[in-house]
Specification:
Low-confidence stretches of chain A: 1-11
Number of strands of chain A: 0
Structural class of chain A: mainly alpha
CATH class of the largest domain in chain B: Alpha Beta
CATH superfamily of the largest domain in chain A: MetI-like
CATH class of the largest domain in chain A: Mainly Alpha
Shape of chain A: globular
Oligomer: heterotrimer
Helix content of chain B: 10-25%
Strand content of chain B: 35-45%
Low-confidence stretches of chain B: none
Radius of gyration of chain B: 25 Å
CATH topology of the largest domain in chain B: Rossmann fold
Largest interface: A-C, 100 and 104 residues
Largest sheet of chain B: 6 strands, mixed
Number of helices of chain B: 8
Distance between the termini of chain B: 32 Å
Order of helices and strands of chain B: EEEHEEEHHHEHEHEEHHEEEEEEEEEE
Distance between the termini of chain A: 47 Å
Number of strands of chain B: 20
Number of domains of chain A: 2
Chains: A mainly alpha (294), B alpha+beta (370), C mainly alpha (290)
Helix content of chain A: over 70%
Order of helices and strands of chain A: HHHHHHHHHHHHH
CATH topology of the largest domain in chain A: MetI-like fold
Structural class of chain B: alpha+beta
Strand order of the largest sheet of chain B: 6-7-8-3-9-10
CATH architecture of the largest domain in chain A: Orthogonal Bundle
Chain lengths: 294, 370, 290
């Protein structure tokens, strides 16, 4: 029996090199997992076991106390509330902001590819460029304008800021995706008498699942992980998770409760990790197809 | 009654004019083919008829009424697209009924219309499938079904066969012709394939660079081309165009052509009054390959066959015919010989020129001399 | 009715465009204006010309920030690219378990810089972290206290940032490698080229667009880097890990030097745009030619 010639583009190599390749890959598996392992292992240890012991070791005594503390009783700023209220704040900010920036991004992409008008290139160019501004440049005026609108320190204010920072990317994603969507389908639907919104809802939207996944993951990750806007524009009752975590870790008073810090860090990472585990595969695929190619 | 009439149509994109004054008219039940090379404006013209693109000036009438400002769905047209444009998320039945759905027609009536169309096109067993599960030919049928179900005044076809393989294309071409004969609805059909144009059309409009080059029946366009472009674009292999000099021989006109051994030979031509003005000047002598044959293959009904020895450079058997490449007036020319003509490359052979089919063009203006 | 249909697309686009116009472009202009004023704790409109910029570049902290950004940027971009490409090439060797390895390389991307910073902060801490671990193992002379060392603290930022981003760069390169036309590689194999040579002479040169994309993404992240520094070192020890992003924040909001803060933000924007605009321009141009 003859072996068929491989169709793959990987270049074949000898046994020894292959073993080496696997070894190197495995080393990096440990490298990437190590910090996560450290966080998880130590979040289940009592504090004195960390201070007296070894960060790399598994807990000798397993305890859920650090988790309970991080969630509901740790001192954040002046209040011993734990991270729970901040977790809820983040959800209240991120869910509407992700929803809005995805919906408007989809509509913008639809208009910019299928209903082109004079000057649409400039509109898109400005939206595209807005993706890349360093946010520091909008901090001062944003604080002023949010105050003027009566939105300073409110959830609505933060939603608005996140929307303004995210809409450029959403528009970019959807525009690139819809650009490859056959324009003849739009024409056919027009001849069938479908209106602007009917075409969007009945023709484009049912085929948009991949790019919706990309956009939602992108926006969710960025907005959940945001620190700068949260630190700059949130008020007493509206502080998001990342800012609270940083307060928890860097509060100068009292003993450093490393185990609580680690539990808190995992709590802050959990939603994005979960989203990533569930849909990360589609995200990378979609991102490569859409965003990077410009 | 004309079911489609186009008057002095202009269309520009910002500073580029793509349609430069088109006048067309097709009678009820006619089959109009818009043909031309890519970029000639034929698809733009079709899109303006559909209302998918706005016109810059001029007028389009469908069924005797101007359609200016009318939405595509209100123009009483249906369109079949090059890519078929089937909605990927809908089944075949949903694709066909989408327009009715939008117009709010009730389900029972939709069902009846779908059944009717699917029996005409024999796509009954495909109704529940998605477009991605169909072959090219099946998609083509569904696309036609979606157009058919609208029962419009005019069907618009935008290069509908160009995505099919050669065999299927011929089959579908026949099918479209049969469908047209059966429905009797006016069709406007865009293609770059001149054979499609000749086989399907009742009227052909040849376009190039936004101008209408010629508008006429397939016979007129093929046998009586108005200019060099139409003559060479229609027909395959295309018409031979040979530089020749007009001369007077007694009462009769002849043309003189350089052969490959630097000699000249003469061919008699019909007395075309306008050619008198060209005596002593050069013209482009056009003769189709099928009018340039071996002696035995010459058209017996022709009253003007001239014989001339020519050097055969290449012989290309093509099954039903054999094509021979010869040199005429310094240019390659193609003769169409019978398949069993005993002619080989490298020899002199006596060829028959059917001069009753010859046409002449002015070299400067490229217009027909007649 | 018809008119409405004609204006509908623009109406739909309008809210987003308006938000961008105000929250990005008007804000940039306003910050630009403030950078020429004597604003301190609150915006004030006394025109001072280029005084803030002169002041800015005379500040030791700002120069530290620029040097740190240069060190951080070069190492971060360089290591991420090399490591990303290296891992992508290894993963492209028909690896069994690729589906298991790839997500592990990639997951740090999903984390907040604050989380990454927290994890590495304690992991690199000489008291409880890796140094302590080696001491426990018996290697008592092992010494690793960069995070507490003014001269080396910025490199710990590089370590954490590389950990977070290199997997993502790997994914970009892997997608690029998979996109290389098989027939070209087969032709090279028939020509007798060795695998190493095929990568060096054929495949990697074809990765140019991916290098460019990775560079732009990483450079942009580097200049914006704020959260990671705050969580990992808080800008310290002292102000040893100050970067432009932390500088801007502290001068504007805690040191009440808004004019100087605004001018530093403008400099940051100029740095980002000088990288991004040529990139976008070339991308859009090649997009039009497609």
């Amino acid at each position: 029996m003859t072996r068929s010639i491989s169709q793959d583009n990987a270049v074949s190599s000898s046994r020894m090199t292959r073993a080496l390749i696997y070894a190197v890959l495995l080393v990096f598996v440990f490298y990437y997992l190590l910090p996560l392992y450290v966080m998880v292992a130590n979040s289940f240890k009592p504090l004195d076991e960390i201070r007296g012991g070894d960060l790399m070791a598994l807990p000798k005594v397993w305890t859920l106390a650090p988790w309970a503390s991080a969630w509901s009783s740790a001192q954040i700023g002046v209040e011993p509330t734990g991270l729970k209220p901040y977790f809820i704040n983040s959800i209240l900010i991120v869910v509407p902001a992700v929803f809005l920036s995805t919906v408007f991004g989809a509509l913008n992409g639809y208009v910019l590819t299928k209903w082109r008008f004079k000057g649409d290139g400039i509109v898109f160019g400005m939206m595209l460029l807005s993706c890349f501004i360093p946010f520091q440049i909008v901090l001062i005026p944003a604080a002023k304008v949010l105050g003027f609108l009566g939105l300073a320190g409110t959830l609505k204010g933060l939603i608005l800021i996140h929307f303004s920072a995210g809409i450029g990317f959403s528009t970019l994603f959807f525009r690139n995706y819809y650009a490859a969507f056959p324009t003849e389908l739009i024409k056919a639907a027009q001849i069938d008498g479908a209106s602007f919104f009917q075409i969007f809802r009945r023709i484009l939207l049912p085929s948009s699942a991949p790019i919706i996944v990309v956009t939602v993951i992108w926006q969710f990750t960025n907005q959940w992980n945001d620190f700068l806007f949260g630190a700059s524009f949130s008020g007493f009752g509206t502080t998001p998770m990342t800012v609270a975590l940083n307060n928890l870790v860097n509060s100068s008073t009292g003993v450093k409760e490393y185990n609580v810090h680690f539990a808190g860090a995992i709590l802050a990472a959990l939603p994005t990790l979960l989203v990533y585990i569930v849909a990360g595969k589609y995200f990378v695929r979609g991102l490569m197809a859409g965003a990077v190619k410009g | 009654m004309a079911s489609l009439k186009i008057k002095n149509l202009h269309k520009s994109y910002s500073s580029v004019e793509v349609l430069k004054g088109i006048d067309l008219e097709i009678e009820d039940g006619g089959f109009l083919v818009l043909v031309g090379p890519s970029g000639c404006g034929k698809s733009t013209l079709l899109n303006t008829i559909a209302g998918l693109e706005e016109i810059t000036s001029g007028e389009i009438q469908i069924g005797g009424k101007s359609v200016e400002g009318l939405h595509p769905s209100k123009r009483d047209i249906a369109m079949v697209f090059q890519s078929y444009a089937l909605y990927p998320n809908m089944t075949v039945a949903q694709n066909i009924s989408f327009g009715m759905d939008i117009r709010g027609i009730d389900k029972a009536e939709q069902k009846k219309a779908i059944d009717n169309v699917s029996s005409i096109l024999q796509i009954g067993e495909l109704l529940d499938r998605k477009p991605s599960q169909l072959s090219g030919g099946q998609r083509q049928r569904v696309a036609m079904g979606r157009a058919l179900v609208r029962d419009p005044q005019v069907f618009l076809f935008d290069e509908p066969l160009s995505n099919l393989d050669a065999k299927l294309r011929v089959d579908m071409r026949t099918e479209i012709k049969r469908l047209h004969a059966r429905m009797g609805t006016t069709i406007v059909y865009v293609t770059h394939d001149q054979i499609e144009a000749l086989t399907l059309a009742t009227k052909i409009a040849v376009l190039k660079d936004g101008y209408l080059q010629q508008f006429g029946t397939p016979d007129e366009v093929y046998n009586d081309p108005k200019n060099v472009f139409v003559a060479t674009f229609m027909g395959s292999p295309s018409m031979n165009l040979i530089e020749a000099v007009v001369a007077k021989k007694g009462e009769n006109l002849v043309i003189q052509i350089a052969s490959n051994d630097n000699n000249r030979f003469e061919l008699p031509i019909k007395n075309i009054a306008a050619l008198e003005d060209y005596v002593g000047k050069s013209v482009l002598f056009g003769i189709r390959p099928e009018a340039l044959t071996d002696r035995e293959g010459a058209d017996r009904t022709s009253d003007q066959i001239a014989h001339q020895d020519c050097m055969i450079e290449v012989v290309e058997p093509a099954g039903s015919d054999t094509f021979a490449v010869i040199n005429l007036g310094g240019k390659e020319a193609i003769a169409r010989l019978r398949a069993d003509a005993k002619i080989t490359a490298g020899e002199q052979a006596s060829l028959a020129f059917n001069m009753s089919k010859a046409v002449f063009f002015d070299p400067a203006s490229t217009l027909r001399i007649r | 009715m018809n008119r409405l249909q004609q204006w509908l697309p623009r109406l739909v686009l309008a809210p987003s465009f308006f938000v961008i116009l105000v929250f990005v472009y008007a804000f940039i202009l306003y910050t630009g204006y403030l950078s020429f004023t004597d604003s301190r704790m609150l915006p004030s409109y006394g025109w001072v010309g280029f005084e803030n910029y002169t002041k800015l570049f005379a500040l030791r902290h700002w120069n530290t920030a620029l040097v740190n950004l240069a060190i951080f940027g070069v190492l971060y971009i360089g290591i991420c690219s090399v490591l990303g490409l290296f891992l992508a090439i290894l993963l492209d060797q028909k690896i069994r378990g690729e589906g298991f390895i790839r997500p592990i390389y990639l997951y740090p991307m999903a984390l907040s810089f604050i989380v990454t910073g927290t994890a590495w902060k304690w992991f690199l801490d000489p008291g409880i972290g890796i140094e302590n671990t080696f001491h426990n193992l018996g290697w008592t002379s092992f010494h690793f206290d960069w995070i507490k060392d003014r001269n080396y603290a910025i490199y710990t930022v590089v370590i954490a940032a590389v950990w977070q981003s290199s997997g993502f760069v790997m994914a970009m390169f892997l997608a690029g490698l998979r996109g290389v036309d098989n027939e070209i590689i087969k032709a090279a194999q028939i020509d007798g080229a060795s695998p190493a040579r095929i990568y060096r002479k054929i495949i990697i040169p074809m990765m140019r667009p991916v290098f460019l994309s990775a560079f732009v993404v990483l450079a942009h992240l580097a200049i914006k880097a704020y959260d990671l520094v705050i969580a990992l070192t808080g800008g310290g020890p002292g102000r040893a890990t100050e970067v432009p992003a932390t500088f801007m924040y502290s001068y504007t909001f805690t040191r009440n030097q808004m004019g100087v803060g605004a001018s530093s933000a403008i400099i940051m924007m100029i740095m980002v745009f000088s990288i991004i605009i040529p990139y976008l321009y070339s991308e859009l141009k090649s997009g039009d030619n497609r």
